[in-house]
Amino acid sequence: MHPVVTLVAQRIALGLLLLLAVSVLIFLGTEALPGDTAQAILGQSATPEALANLRAELGLDQPALTRYFGWLGGILTGDLGVALTNGMEISSELGKRLGNTLFLAFWAAVISVPLAIILGLVAARYVGRWPDKLISGVTLSTISLPEFVVGYILLFFLGVKWQIFPPMAMAFPGMGLFERLYTVMLPVLVLVLVVLAHMMRMTRAAILNVMQSAYIETAELKGLSPMTVIARHALPNAIAPVVNVVMLNLAYLVVGVVVVEVVFAYNGVGQYLVDHVAKRDLPVVQAVGMVFAAVYIGLNILADVISILANPRLRHPK
Amino acid sequence: MSNELNYLLKRAARGLMSRREFVGRAGALGVSAAVASSMLATAARAEGPVKGGLLRAGMQGGESTNTLDPALAASEVPFAVNMLWGEMLVDVNAKGEIDYRIAEEISASADATEWKFKIRAGVEFHDGKTVTAEDVVATLKRHTDEKSQSGALGIVQGISEMKAEGDMVTLKLAAGNADLPFLMADYHLIIQPGGGVGAEAAGIGAGPYKVVSNEPGVRHAFEKHANYFDTTMGHADQVEIIVINDNTARTAALQAGQVHMINRVDPKIIDLLKGAPGISIEHVAGRGHYVFIMHVDKAPFDNNDLRMALKLAINRQEMVDKILGGYGSVGNDFPINGAYPLFDETIAQREYDPAAAAEYYKKSGHDGSPIVLRTAAGAFPGAVEAAELFQQSAAAAGIPLEIKREPDDGYWSDVWNVQPFCASYWGGRPVQDQMYSTAYLSTADWNDTKFKDPAFDATLIAARAELDPVKRKAMYSELANNLRDNGGLICPMFNDFVEAKREEVGGWEPDPNGELMNGRALARCWLNA
Amino acid sequence: MRRIPLSAIIGMILTGAFILSALLADFIAPYGMAEVVGDVWEPISADHWFGTDTIGRDMLTRMIYGGQTTILVAAAATMISFGTGSVFGFLAATMGGWIDQAMSRFVDLLMAIPSLILALVILSVMPATLTTLILVMGFLDATRVFRLSRAVAVDITVMDYVEAARLRGEGWRWIIFREILPNALSPLVAELGLRFIFAVLFISTLSFLGLGVQPPLADWGGIVKENSAGLVYGKSAALIPAFAIAALAISVNLVADWVLSRTTSLKGGRGA
């Protein structure tokens, strides 16, 4: 078998193993949270009698190992159980929320990834000159403001003052694609601004790094135009770090958007998770944790595979 | 009547101007506030509600963990949601009187131990069944069962016997309680078909709206219940509650017209929001209060001199001005204010007095080590800032406070009622007895100051069965003074309910019982075309 | 020695000014850190150069002390994350085999859970002190640095000069510090500036969730949060710390960019 295929298969197998390890970690981690679910559900209205009743009802008195295997078996069969706090099916609830989150992440990624790479290439092409400085300066400013400030500023100008986009980005079932896109435009813009700089700067740095190599000099001496050199010769060799940063940011778009969801009242997974962490609703926290982990691990396998395929020395070992 | 007044009246009646603004401007024309209010009420009735349309409220206080089971309702959104689909036996109206809902008549024995509720005929549940006395008894029984984890457990526990006969429900109490009808207005006690047993969270009730879509933490959608018994409510065809927990986002959605009304306007931005076109601010003094609580059984708070020092070292007016933006009133270290019946206005107001505080602090013999005050942003809006102000005003009296900010996550389980000194919030109750019984009786589960005084308990229980209002008022005054001087409660302020609505919303009336017209705003208001 | 570009000089002056004001906070702050001196959100005046904050404290004073906290926490956390992350990353890349696998998978394991949730769990179990905060942030961020430095180093380890060093029989210390580090420096330095900003933003997010430094102490992000209610209505108090964060971030990065271009040209000179 070709060594690359072996390598790729290895990565995928490792990823699955990792997911299993994460499931143990998540289970143990949620067990270690202080306070318990019964107390958290009842909150300020907890009377000792009500607490004892609820604990027994939730099965919190069973041993941890039994609960772990029961839970793992459930995941494998697609049954995530019901939320302790309101008795609703986790898989259907989470499915809806995840759809909304992925919708947001998808459009933010569609806009930001190509933009970041193009801007990175342009900045590298004109390194030290005004386009580079302008691009670097602007992206640096957007990344330097806390997300909720960027959100509030856009909310104020585009949502309230000029009323171009709706300030509340909540997605309802039955919305058409364009209506939905229009509704989520503000959070998409914020996310784009937040992830753009990191990817763009890494592209620029990686390209500049490669530009020092001898084969780039050869290409330049061949008389190729600077943009061709960058796009055809430098970029493929800068892919490993770029892909890594892109994947980190894609993962962030899925798992790290709580703040944006709060600011625009968007019904995604982040808010769902935070609510249930606050109520110690362990089945939900565990399920969301697993979904996040799966997204993250999946993206990373992808990044590894792309890096392997892009590295000529790994592709053609001696 | 002058033309201008007439014009103002029309605008106010159609909801194009807030009640408060109308009263103010009528005052400028020489009309007293009482007269202006009654003029407005008449005009509003004449103008009449507009039927139809979709009315939306944007609310704070909802989470994806919420359920439709009324027994478990604890935060603002579930409360408002349940008030749309559900009905209780009775409700408390804006004037603090009993408003008959499913019960149409109540009578009591002389010692207030036996109560009869006559069930209104022909009230229909959303599933088409008629509300019977059996449904009422089954509902109350479910809340008595500890397994229901009902927030009303403490209320229904006092009922020793309940039975249904024809259209009459009879409740026998272990001890007389003149306030029982007020207790039956508790928002957990929504009448469900068959008591809701087996279908606790089905959302089937006898209220003005039927549940169409229930997405906790996101959106709750309703349509009109066609056979609703009360024609003065339920004007819009559809209503929706949209959960927007972030203050800024909620206000922005109101300004952009995505929702018609919002609860909990951040006090700091009230004056700024007033200038926005098409928005009016509605506020009403309520019974909720923001507090700092000390456990009187734990050192150093077991020393009443130290407690007194801390009570004198807090600047109440500054708190009202800065934390509530002026929309509230100062507290007096007991949990009752003028919004309660039988309130004693003659009790002296405690003021900020650093010199006296320093004196008491010295007398307490405290070792001068920092006293840890725990707080969290979620304890009440502005709780961290309030703690910072407290720290500063106490420092002026030479009392060192150390603020410990705890995460919101777990605050009500790990800090409140556990740690000896922390920030907290009380929502208030319709009557004094219920407030004192919930948190200051020795045996109360929620006795969060650990205040245990047999004399206090005895007076409180005696007051329950006392039917002479003068004597009862004197007893409550005694309780208030006792708590004020000996208790572990530092109560700097009572907060107003501050809400905002768009000017096309008609029919708004202030209600001190709860947020958004005690949860009835969507059912009582309408949309002017 | 090449001439230092203007942008780098500006960056250095600004960064220096921020650090200096943080060090001298006790001497230059006009009022006490938590002292209430005026009304809510007073406008800019001669007494209060930046106005007052959400409960009437002097904004300039808050900013100076806030800068102290922010810079201390972010710088310490970044140092920890780079110290541990890059060394382990290079180590993994150099050693390869099961050591690399074990370390990479362990880091993947940690990273697979969102750091905010991890921070939430850890900080709610441990006492919330400044040290805990720095350690938690530093080690959570180290996973990211690890990944990047490993990715960069893996590309370098297949280079001929590393193989040559290996064949010469050099130890891993030599390979890491003499072969990999100089060649991996430029992407790492570029990352350093960004990670510093992320550290600043991460504290502000933690403050947002009530897990940051203890009041009345506040970092800049916390001051933004404290005053953010008025932002949409033209009360600019929240913008002051927001701009301070941006200014600090940009000036640090201007310096980082210059370092980056210098190391790149150094390396180019050696490769030629």
What does this protein structure show overall?
The complex is a heterotrimer of chains A (318), B (529) and C (272). Chain A has 318 residues and is mainly α. Chain A has one domain: MetI-like (MetI-like fold, Orthogonal Bundle). Chain A is 77% helix and 0% strand. Chain A is built from 16 helices and no strands. In chain A, helix 10 packs antiparallel against helix 11 and helix 12 packs antiparallel against helix 15. Chain B is built from 19 helices and 19 strands. In chain B, the strands form five sheets. In chain B, strands 1, 8, 9, 10, 11, 12, 13, 16 and 17 form a nine-stranded mixed beta sheet that branches. In chain B, strands 4-5-7-6 form a four-stranded antiparallel beta sheet, with helices on one face. In chain B, strands 2-3 form a two-stranded antiparallel sheet. In chain B, strand 14, helix 13 and strand 15 form a beta-alpha-beta unit. The mean pLDDT of chain B is 89. With 272 residues, chain C is mostly helical. Chain C has one domain: Orthogonal Bundle (MetI-like fold). Chain C is elongated, with a radius of gyration of 22 Å. Chains in contact: A-B, A-C, B-C. Chains A and C meet through helix 1, helix 6, helix 7, helix 9 and helix 12 of A and helix 4, helix 5, helix 6, helix 8 and helix 9 of C.
Q: Strands, helices and their partners?
A:
The complex is a heterotrimer of chains A (318), B (529) and C (272).
Chain A: H1 3-32, H2 37-42, H3 48-58, H4 64-76, H5 90-125, H6 130-144, H7 147-161, H8 177-183, H9 185-210, H10 214-221, H11 226-237, H12 239-255, H13 258-263, H14 269-278, H15 282-310, H16 312-315
Chain B: H1 3-13, H2 19-28, H3 33-47, E1 54-59, H4 76-85, E2 90-92, E3 98-100, E4 103-108, E5 114-119, H5 133-144, H6 153-156, E6 159-165, E7 168-173, H7 180-183, E8 209-215, E9 219-224, E10 238-243, H8 247-255, E11 261-262, H9 270-274, E12 279-294, H10 304-312, H11 316-323, E13 328-330, H12 354-364, E14 371-375, H13 383-395, E15 401-405, H14 411-415, E16 421-426, H15 432-439, H16 454-465, H17 469-486, E17 489-502, E18 505-506, H18 515-518, H19 521-524, E19 526-527
Parallel strand pairs in B: 1-10, 1-11, 14-15
Antiparallel strand pairs in B: 2-3, 4-5, 5-7, 6-7, 8-9, 9-10, 11-17, 12-16, 12-17, 13-17, 18-19
Helix pairs in contact in B: 1-2, 1-3, 2-3, 10-12, 11-13, 16-17
Chain C: H1 6-23, H2 25-28, H3 59-95, H4 97-111, H5 115-125, H6 130-157, H7 160-168, H8 172-208, H9 220-227, H10 239-271
Helix pairs in contact in C: 1-3, 1-10, 3-4, 3-6, 3-8, 3-9, 4-6, 5-6, 6-8, 8-9, 8-10, 9-10
